[in-house]
Here is the input.
Amino acid sequence: MPSPTEILAPSGEEMLSRAIALTLLAPVQHRAELFESFTQQIAAITTAPDSGMKPWACFVHTGTDGSRIFRGGIGLCIVIDPEGRLWRARTYEDFETTYTITDTSCEIDTIKPNYQLMREYVIS
Here is the structure.
């Protein structure tokens, strides 16, 4: 498997595309951990003070089914299901989500993927 620095590209979005492709090549049992590592590195690279790049962020959640959900800032998510399959999802429409709401915050409490609404990433 390539080292994380090999996913460098001119933008966070291009690095994400490369990270998805590399993750699909990995053994299914390692995909969630590998992809999370890639997203952390992309965020670190794009938010570095001298990067000159548009900052990129990703928030990671665990789904009610044990999936790993990677939420970006542009309305899309990548979901890695418990079997290691990768899915493209819409941030709000493709999940049943409950929230914890306080006077000062609104945080996700539970998030349940609806795979029937998502598109699966496959190696072409």
